[in-house]
Amino acid sequence: MRKPVVGVIGNAHRVENRFQVQMVGERNLRAVAEVSGGLPMMFAGAPDITDIGALLDVVDGIVLTGARANVHPTRFNVDPCERHEPYDIHRDEVALALSVACVSRGIPLFGICRGLQEMNVAFGGSLHPEIREIPGRMNHRMPRLENGEIHPDPTVVFADRHDVDLTPGGAFARLLGCEKIRVNSLHGQGILDPGKRVLIEGIAEDGTIEAIRIAEAPTFALGVQWHAEYDPQRNPINRKLFEAFGEAMVERQRAAA
Description:
Layout: E1 5-9, E2 11-15, E3 19-23, H1 26-36, E4 39-43, H2 52-58, E5 61-64, H3 89-105, E6 109-112, H4 114-122, E7 126-128, H5 154-157, E8 162-166, H6 171-176, E9 180-183, E10 190-193, E11 198-204, E12 209-214, E13 221-224, H7 236-256
Parallel strand pairs: 1-4, 1-5, 5-6, 6-13
Antiparallel strand pairs: 2-3, 7-10, 8-9, 8-11, 11-12, 12-13
């Protein structure tokens, strides 16, 4: 049996403020290759050059990664605000349609950070642009120095920062073998209202939604708000998630054989 091919979505980026490129963080690619056992294949988050149907004909799974840009508010009927930029409207168009298509076609789907948010919006949910502004919520953004710069040590930036309570008997609790986990936190935007088929399976200690699954999906269709791609080679929680994603792809291959 061949190695599963995993489509990993790209993000719009400008190099030297001149060259438009599509980028994927290497940690995502290594997590797919080293833990899920797949062959990572980046595809463009650009609808004019990414044919979703053709893409899903050649991949065994899809990863929607985290990203700097927020999902555009008009996708859930809210006016945009400069304060919450940047946006990546082309990735929005691809990722939202892709989320629905994956579930419909039974293709394993793993959403991480922005990817979880995209899955929620794709199924009719909404987002809050700045979770920390909701009374009682903590600051879920990455740690910064006193001068405002991002902390230079990645072990500090990606360190586990808060607990998440998992739904007893839910998909995450069964997969991870526990009902409480501790995760990193590097996001500003978060789920406000869950979509119609979005089931909440993990909630942070401040009430922020951290883990979801799509109801009645025929295969793996999970999203996490934390950055599971960080060190799944050693982090047991993140490793189990990427392993389960890989197993779902292998099962799909066997069923199609």
